[in-house]
Amino acid sequence: MKKKILLSLGLLIIVSLLISACNGGQTSQPASQATNPPAQSTSAPSGEPVTIKMWAHIWDGSDKANKDLIDKFMQQNPDIKVVYETFDYGTFIQTLQTSVVAGTEADVIQMFGTWACDYAKGNRLLEVPSSLMTYDQAKGTFFKSQLDGYYCDNKLYGFPREYNLESSGIMINPTMFQEAGIANPPDWKTFDDVIADAQKLTKFDNTGTMTTAGLDIHGDEGVFVFLASILELGGDYRAADGLHFNFNTPEGEKALQFLVDLIQKYKVYDPIIWGSSDLTESFFKGQVAMAYGGTWLTGGGSQFPDTKFDYVKLPPFFGSQHQYAADSGWGIVVSAHTKYPEAAWKLAQFLALNEDNAREWNAESMTIPGMISVANNPGVILEKNPYVAIPLSSDVMANARYIGPLGDRDQFFGQIWAQISKAMTGEITVKEALQEMEKQGNELIDNKK
Amino acid sequence: MNSTAVINYPPADKKPNYKVKGGALRYQRRFATITITPIMIYMIFFALFPILMVVVMSFFDYTPIRQGSGFMGLGGDNPFIGFENYKNLLFSSNTAASIFRKAFVTTIIFTVLYVPLNLTVTLPLAILVESVHDKVKGLFRTIYFMPAISSTVVVGLIWGIIYAPQGGLLNLLMHGLGLPSRAWLTDPRAFVFGIPVPLIAIMIALLWQEFGYNLVIFISALQGIPQEFRDAARVDGANSWHEFWKITLPLLQPTLLLVCVLSVISTLQQFVIFQLLTHGGPNYETYNLVLDLYESAFRYQSMGWGAAISMVLFALTGIVTAVQFRLLRVKWEY
Residue A358's CB: how many other CB atoms inside 10 A? Predict the structure, then answer.
């Protein structure tokens, strides 16, 4: 009997330890508390400086700028100590997911805008205090296509730091242009001119295998082209409810046929050879003459100093005006678990709402400004990355709209590109691909409603 | 001062009497208890509890980004759904379920092809290595075992270079022979007897890395077969072929069971080489169950769904292992 009691006691202790360990030593906040900041405090009860943590996805320029700005913040706010930690993309996603359960995530998180509503709806993020900024005020401060990634169920949960834009420009290999007798910068009036030059740049070996792709559009960029083309053709990829997808439209068919024709009709790219390779790597290794994507692509050049590159203006795929379905890029949010919401928002404000700091981060991270006033007065950004002048001078930033809810951002892009790829390689027809894309996209929406 | 424990050994048909007071046995038992208790607690924390959580989680529509109402965020916005995840895995027509079923079939095909291929290569090779001169035997063993001690990431990179469509070593060889280049890992239209070429390419890379393990196990088993059996067979007029089929292979049966079980378990759980070489592509042709559960749980945040997939993998591994034990077990020793 005594042994049984001791055994039960021992098991009870173990289970208690397990429960406390799994809760991360904290009690989860109920939803009502999570959306409203707890009692505002900057200092720890003892009067000691508070320590808050900031997490970000690692990339060179962003890290340097974040560290510099955090140092400056701590000098100005000696009562707040900031611990800055970074992760590669995959680890960042996993760490965020698991830590929000345990309540051990950072106070301030540099989060991808398109993820923000998933976390906000799960009561994992704090709403921006109206004393700091309202949505209406934010609309006048940031580009709406970026801000709307942080606006969920009529509540604002964060601020964009960049304009995530893949359109309006293209990275080119000037040496290949010269060899093919094409002017640099090219004088492209329509996208047909781009395709004609891409054909001149494409090379094959004596067995008929493509050795140089004239124009590489693949992966997430391929999905952006598909959506932008639908918009440029005057259509919409959303159904009447504004939530579900509707790709089975004349515009959808024309947009996908355009991508398929690049492979099957114009033969400027082979998705079987380059479809799963890293876009920047194949470009800088000299396998691709033109790589479609945002100005961030040029950052890859630092690892390939021998390859010359340029970033030039691109005409719309259809019509005369650029249209674009924008993914909301990296921005700043505050965790619902933070013990020091005031300090956390102070840091968020310092990083994302201060114009000079926003400009400094954009310049170092080679990103396009998400803040309207910085885009109007880019200053040092153009010194660091002159290619940003192309999207800044284009109509695309003003015309773009937020891509909208996707269910799961990475899953959506992965599944849609898989169907585009199948259509490109002729495994399925354009119509079949559109039907499958619509089915899969809507499943994601319904699963995450 | 002698302290002698008096142990009354029980008759063979009775359980031993452990109620011995004092002496070495008592200290021995106390020492053993103290030693294994922390390990047991560690195992409860880091093995038993996570396994139980996966079982529980598979009955919930659970995603970590939603704040649930109960223990570990289960319940509330992460509701209990009973066997819904399992039912959907088997019968639903949605994309995730279709992908799972394709991954299941791919995993089975890969295992069914890979394990016999591995055994077909390693067993004869072990016999050959065993039959070479003693002076070079060690050298052969070392060379063959080297890929096995290499990191899978390195192996993935090496084979990535070999299979690269542009400037890959295999395509250079093809060029040298006047044959067209191929996209060994990315062509969704390439099949050999209905098996996707990228899956075969992964099989070859994995075989290159793993055959050293089984080779070493077979070599040590071969060394354990008494020479007298072979000599007796020779006296009876057996040739090498008879010797292999009538002596070596039957006596290797316990080792074959071990190698089969270990290889099947390891093959069903392969992840890194798939992730590195193809990420499951092209068009999910090399997407196996572990990739599916990893992507579902950790990339797409559907942990309840991922947990159900892992339970299916667990059941599959258990059933296949049990069947192997049933078919290959022996009741004799030598």
Answer: 27
Q: Structure tokens of B106?
A: 């791919």
E strand or H helix that includes residue B166: none
Examine the pLDDT at A20 and tell me if it is beyond 70: no
> Scanning the structure block, which residue is given the tokens 């063979």?
B12
A325 neighbors A116 (Cβ within 8 angstroms): no
| Residue A82, CB-side half-sphere exposure with 13 Å CA sphere | 29
CB contact under 8 Å between A443 and B64, yes or no, is no
Q: What is the DSSP string of A121-136?
A: HTT-BPPPPTTT--HH
Q: Is B160 on the interface with A (CB under 8 A)?
A: no
Nearest CB among A21, A98, A272 relative to B186 is that of A272
Instruction: Looking at the structure, tell me whether residues A97 and A235 fall in a common domain.
Output: no
Pick the closest to residue B190 from B172, B218, B165 (CA basis). Answer: B165
Q: And the tokens for A235?
A: 């259509």
B281 contacts in chain A (CB < 8 Å): 276
Give A112's strand partners. A330
**Alpha carbon of residue A301 to chain centroid:** 20
Retrieve residue A438's tokens. Answer: 């619509």
Answer whether CATH 1.10.3720.10 is correct for domain B99-328.
yes
ipTM over 0.85: no
Q: Establish if A26 belongs to a structural domain.
A: yes
Exposure letters A279-298 (e unless 16+ CB within 10 A, then b): bbebbbebbbbbbbbbbbbb
Tell me the pLDDT tens digit for each residue of A247-262: 999 999 999 999 999 9
Q: Give how many domains chain A has, as a whole number.
A: 2
